[in-house]
């Protein structure tokens, strides 16, 4: 018996639920990582599923990374689009405590590197392979969205819906060798504003910002170089072998089998076709 995608309507005759459908792949119920959003928009829920529900490509599975720094207390913190509100809203990047695997926090501390320099993607996103590349950072749990800066001195954000500028120049970063000189670190330079780097100073409490040094003394100072350096490692999140991206009108969803999740929040039904 062939295995394919299909949708099933919710078993509820009330008209307000007539557009709610579950997505299945063979015997697997696919759920979307979400903190409350379930609106897929106007899609063909019967015959055109392959037009808007696409399998995660094999090469994407090896491009997941997490970025860390040492905290002022000596522990490790993770660059994270932490969704503190519990709602699918814009997120401000922060450095967060090490998350438990199988949680929203682990997913939000994982990013897929999307290469924008017209070169072939490396087989795996190791430090050696990505230094010198031009990339966008796509949140693991928000396919098709990207991290973007808001200018010098301001925080980095992720928008949870498609209501963001179409111009992605503020989302492009050059991966440089770590400014701190450590052979395991990288630094992220804004492609739109050369000389400005993603920066987190745990002592100042200013969060993750784009910082442009005011002068050579600041640029070459140990404090700036340390705060603009991150250790690049394997992503905490992983794509299940049966993973899809469902492209909605306002946002896309990462679909995975329900049985593969632990403590992540998700939606089982989607509002499709309205």
From TrEMBL:
Q: Which GO terms describe its biological process?
A: L-arabinose metabolic process
Location of the Alpha-L-arabinofuranosidase B arabinose-binding domain: 142-251
Q: Which Gene3D superfamilies match?
A: 2.80.10.50
Q: Name one Pfam family in it.
A: AbfB
Write down the InterPro entries for this protein, in alphabetical order.
AbfB_ABD, AbfB_ABD_sf
Q: Which molecular-function annotation in GO is an example for this chain?
A: alpha-L-arabinofuranosidase activity
Task: Read off the PANTHER family from this record.
Answer: PROLINE-TRNA LIGASE (DUF1680)
Kindly provide the name given to this protein in its UniProt entry: DUF1680 domain containing protein
Q: Which organism is it from?
A: Musa troglodytarum (fe'i banana)
């Amino acid at each position: 018996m062939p295995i394919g995608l299909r949708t099933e309507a919710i078993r509820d005759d009330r008209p307000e639920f007539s557009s709610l459908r579950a997505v299945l792949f063979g015997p697997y119920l696919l759920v979307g990582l979400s903190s409350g959003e379930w609106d897929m928009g106007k899609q063909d829920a019967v015959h055109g599923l392959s037009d808007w529900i696409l399998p995660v490509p094999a090469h994407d599975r090896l491009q997941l990374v997490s970025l860390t720094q040492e905290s002022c207390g000596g522990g490790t913190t993770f660059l994270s689009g932490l969704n503190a509100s519990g709602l699918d809203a814009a997120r401000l990047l922060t450095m967060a405590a090490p998350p438990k695997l199988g949680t929203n926090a682990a997913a939000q501390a994982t990013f897929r590197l999307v290469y924008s320099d017209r070169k072939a993607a490396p087989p795996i996103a190791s430090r050696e392979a990505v230094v010198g590349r031009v990339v966008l950072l796509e949140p693991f749990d928000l396919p098709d969205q990207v991290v973007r800066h808001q200018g010098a001195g301001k925080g980095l954000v992720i928008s949870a819906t498609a209501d963001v500028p179409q111009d992605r120049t503020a989302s492009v970063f050059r991966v440089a060798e770590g400014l701190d000189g450590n052979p395991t670190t990288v630094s992220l330079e804004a492609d739109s504003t050369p000389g400005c780097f993603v920066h987190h100073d745990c002592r100042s409490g200013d969060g993750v910002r784009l910082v442009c040094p005011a002068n050579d003394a600041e640029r070459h100072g140990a404090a700036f170089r340390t705060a603009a350096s991150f250790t690049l490692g394997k992503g905490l999140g992983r794509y299940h072998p049966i993973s899809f991206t469902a492209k909605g009108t306002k946002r896309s969803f990462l679909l995975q089998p329900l049985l593969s999740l632990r403590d992540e929040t998700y939606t089982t039904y989607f509002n499709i076709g309205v």
